[in-house]
Every structure is written in structure tokens, then in C-alpha cells.
Amino acid sequence: MADPSSSFLCPITRELMTDPVIDPDGNSYERSAIEDWLKQHSTSPITRTPLRLNDLRPNRALRESIEEYRNKQSSSNTITKSKPITIVNNQSFDLKVTSSWLNDFTHISIQPPEGIGIRAPCDICCVVDTSGSMSTEVEIQGVSNDKEKYGLSQLDLVKHALKTIIHSLTQNDRLSIVSFANSAQILFKLHQMDDDGRSSALAALERLNDNGQTNLWDGLRTGLEVLTEGQRTTESNIALFLLTDGCPNIEPPRGHLPALAAYKTKTNFTCSINTFGFGYNLDSKLLEDLAQIGNCGSYAFIPDGSFVGTIFVNAISNLLTTAATNLQLSIGGIQPALDSSSNYICNYSTNISNHKLCDEPMLCLNLGSITFGQSKDVVIPMTMDQYKKMEIILDYESPQGQKKKQCKSLERLDGDIKLLNHQKYRLELVDIIRKGYELLRGSEETFTTNQQSVLDNIETLEQTIKNHSTNDNYLTDLLTDLTGQIKTAFSRYDWFVKWGIHYLPSITRAHLLQQCNNFKDPGVQHYGQGQLFNTVRDEMDAIFCDLPAPKRAGSGAPIDMSVFNDADNPCFHGSCTVKLFDGSIKFVKDLRRGDRLYPHGGTINYVLKTICNNRQVQMVLLDSGLIITPWHPIRLNGVTWVLPCSLVSCPTNIICEAVYSFALDQGHTIWVNDIECVTLGHGFKEDIVRHIYYGSERVIEDLRIMDGQQNCTGFIEIQSKWVIRNKRTGLVNGIRQPENIDIISN
Questions:
Q1: Residue 48 sits in the same domain as residue 135
Q2: Residue 448 gets which letter from DSSP?
């Protein structure tokens, strides 16, 4: 069946409409879908303007056109669904600005539309380092020297990441590829990603070969020229992705940053520059500064192969769900307050501007891009009198490049202490890390001299956040970021110089810009909460994992690309101990159906034993003695769910015959080495712990079936390859025992 016109598809359900209705702004929806939406909202899902049920009218003309389409396609029994990432809406969207004052702080929030099934076209130029070092073999790293190799180079994984981008784009989008080594080369000119364009782009990737030096500036300049010269009259979201694994060894005469600043002044380019650093031989400070000058783009650190998928899936998802670009928030009328708030605003790119809509100079904060469903927030200390005098002007570019202005259209709200604390402590975290990073850079003597003061500042903020984090998932996860990888990076000189100097700019930039840049750091998972972002990200994740794997050098087993997106099953090591309801202790490996657990008295229905591939598995070792897979949720203090991987610097590669998990009749948690851990089929819906399969009745049904296939004792033995993933999303959706397989008795 031919694809229907996008106007025939409901923007909420993304399905062909049968009973379309139209709102006063001319947007059409399936009647039942918009009625369900308006039961929970009072605004349009597209424009966010007020909308009521009695504003809707039947769209008879559209209904007739859809029926005519159906008749022409009657030979097909399938109604095609449009992928969310392919829908393009030509409207411009207004951003909403609100403010509130509480406890001598003003919270300014910029709110985008939700963006259900809607995105603008994109122009992307990928600038790829092809210097000789890109031939370095990729490793998946555990701890110290525990590394696994797959016969793939850095460039092989870069190509796979770029294939993910190519397959995520539609005929409304355009892509270009520029390579650089001794000099830059336009490998693929800016071209629509229709079928022909996609095929040509994939062919161009195969011409990427590693050799030569690292002339980063020539690659960056060439990429910017491609985007500037190819700019559309009706603009799209424009971005440059710069991928490199080293320090430039060919520099422009005045240096990279002055050269980029001068080029920006000359051309006034509007695209964002997003930088990606592979491995540990990086100039991360340069990459972050280039992103900052490049219209507040992002910087991401990719230490090893396991981060390639998680970084690029989130990067392309952020770009595809961009609602507006080049946000500039101008604040006036309160200069003394602005002068005293450096720790809250100094990490943004700022300047003093004489805005034509204001009589006095204003402080301008460059906030970069904003995605559908995710706010941008600023906090400034000031008195109530200053707040009353405050003036705000927001300038930004819509997806179609129409310049928007909001002057004196500020909606003042009552203060909300929870929201205020979220933004205060987010910005305080960014400031403490940035200052600590600058203070400790240099020699080992410099590090040793200043380390304690940096750790003291971290511990002060840690205690402050702890005092406000009860029943607050965001602050709990922000605290996990702070006390986990961030604090670890400052704890030892060798860790700081190897990976801390690269990781810290990446994590702070994500928190500053309020962008989710990976699947791993708990705090950043709270950004990118819009429905469109999550839909697009699921699509990107599936594309990365489902694309044919790169060819490895030499012989070897097929490569599952989900390895490079770091996914684990929830399990315990058999030597761990579990407290029973009667106070006695058992080893995990000795638990069986009928055992009653502390403290709730829940009884074990199923024990699931998973045989480890090659007798090895990546696990986290906690101080209590708990040995657990990195992504198995645990609950701290009976309140906060966290992932074990967030509590240590990195997992450990354990020699292990098998790991174990359990399903209970009630309670759905198990105390292993005095730590509360979730069990299978729990049904919990909180952040971190919820899971579409492991938390549902479907896993219990699969266990019941396998129990019947094996021995009906409640003890089930499987191999890890029996875990099934959804081909579209890459998420686990089943465990199946292959037919005609011999099961080893327990």
C-alpha cells in the first residue's frame, strides 16, 4: 500500500484517520484521540494554545479525501503507520517564558511545546577525523586491564554511528560528510536523504580510510562552508557533528578558537557545532570550547566502544526533536543582582547587549537549542524589589528560521520550592565541577595542592542536596552523579588525568544545557522527557542495534552491536547472601521455590539461573559484598531507586559460571547482602526501576512456560542468548527456550 499523505495521519496516534475533526488553528485530529487528549490537557497538542472540545468541528473535506484514498488502496489489507521521525509540520511554535520568585531567588523557565509526532527538517554535516590514529582497535573496558577486543577500529565504529544517522533521516532532511586528515575533503555533498541520497551516503562512508595527521580546523571550516553555502531559503535545524580521537597537530595561525570566532563574525553562521571525542588522547578543553562558540553546541566523551551507541543515539535524538535554536535570554533592570550571581550564570556564554527593545544594557545568556518537551531554566539570586523591576526579552529562531521575539510577555507564577531547588543545585553542581576542573588541571603538584578544597566543596554540596532529596527522584539522581563518577574523577591524580579531564566537561555540559547525552549517568536521564524525544530515541536505538555489524578484521563470531550500547540483564552472583523471613541466611545459588524472604514474607515462585558466556560477566561489586549486574535497580534507604553502575567508577569483569534472578508472589524485592534489590515481574512504575518487560507480567508468563518445558520445580536454567529483543526498539521483550534443547538438571 502506498504511504498516505501526512495530512491524512492523526498527529497524536500517527495512524490514518477515520473521523477527523479540525480545531480553530486548522489542525486536524482523529476525534477519539483529541478527545482523550483534552480530558487531561486544556491546550492544543501542537500549538499549546487554549483548546476545548466545543472548539472542534468535523473535517468533512478531509474525511472524503481519506475515504477516496482508502478506496484506491482497497487491494491492500494493511494501513501504513508513519514513523514519528518522518512527520514534518510547517508551523512555527512559540516558546513560553515564565518566572517565579522565592527565598531571594528568581527562577526563569522557557517552555517549548510538547511536540507530539512533530519535527522540523534537519541539515547535518558530519566532519570525521580520518587521521592514522583512527585505526586504533576499539576495546570494551572493564577495570584496569580487563578489556575485550572485537577486531574493530575507531573508524569502523564511527562509520556505524554515521550509518545510524543516515538511516534515521528522511527525504525532508539533508546530509553531508567531510573527512579530514592532512587536509579536508568533501566526501559527500549536502544532499536529500531520499532513497538515492541514502545509498550514495552509505557508499561514501566506505571511502573513509585512516591516514595522515589531524588538521581539525580545515575539517571544521570546510564543514561550516558546506552548511552555509547550502543553506535553504526555508530554513531547517542545522548542525555540524565533529568526530575526532586526538589532539590537532596542524593549527591555524591564530589558533582554533580565534579562527572560529573570526569565521563566525564574518559569516554569522547559525548552525550548532557538536563535538565528540574518542579515547583518551584528546584536547577536551578545545572540543568543549569549539562547541561553546558554535552556538552553544554539545560535547560528548566516548572513552571506549561501549559508549558509541549511547552517545550517538541521544545526540541525533536531541537534534531531530529541536523546537527552536539560538536562544538568547536578555535580562535587564537588575544589574546589581546579575553582578552578584556569577556562580549561577557564569558558565553560560554571556555578553552585555544594547537590545533595541530596552533602554538600558542587558545581560544576554546564550542558551543554545531547546527540544520539544524539555524546558530551559535559569536561576538568579535577587530581592523581591529587583524581581518586580526585572525585564526579559527572549530571541530565538523557529524551526523554519523565522525570528521570534518575546518582549514583556513574561508570565509570573507563584514560587515552587521543589522546582527552584532542582535548578539551583543543578547549576551549583555545574559551577563546582567547572571550578574544580580548572583548579586541578596542570601538574601533579597542582592537583595535590588543591584537591582537598575541591573535595570539600563537593561534600558541602553533597550534604545540601541530601537534606532536600527525600522523595525527590531528580535530586537523588543528581546526587548520584555528584558522589559517583564526578567525585571519583577528582579522587586520584591518575584517574583525573586519564579520564576525568575528558568526562567532567561532558557531564557538566549535559547538565548545563539540560540535555540527555547518554543512557548511563542517572542525573541526565531526567532531561529529554518529551514524548517526541523518547519516541525518536527508541527508533534510533533500534536502528543502531539492528544495522548489519561492521566487518571485523580476520575471523571471529558475528558482532552484536548492542554490545556497543551497553545493555545487561538483571542478576546476582551466586555467592551473595540473602536474608530469609525467619532471620536465617542462604546463598543466592541455594535459594529455591517456596523460600520466604525478609522482611515482607514474599515467597519465591521462580528461580532463574542464567549461564554466563565464556564464564565471564560484567558486574558491580559494592562494599556490602553485593555482586550484581550494572543495570539491576536497587533501593537505598527504602526510598530511592538507583542503578549499581552509578555507584562505582566502572564495573568489573567477573569469572562466573552463572547468575541468578527471582520472581516472588508478593513484595517483589529481595535483600541481598543487606541491600534491597528488585525482583522480576514487580510492576513498579517509578523512574529507574520501571521496565517494559522485566517489570511486567509478561516475564512471569515466560518463566511459567519455561518451567513447564523443563522440570516444573520453579528452578529454570537458561543461556543468555535466549533473551529476545524487540527489532524496532532494541528493548528486551521475551525469554524463550529454543526447541529440542537438552536442559542440564540443577
A1: no
A2: H
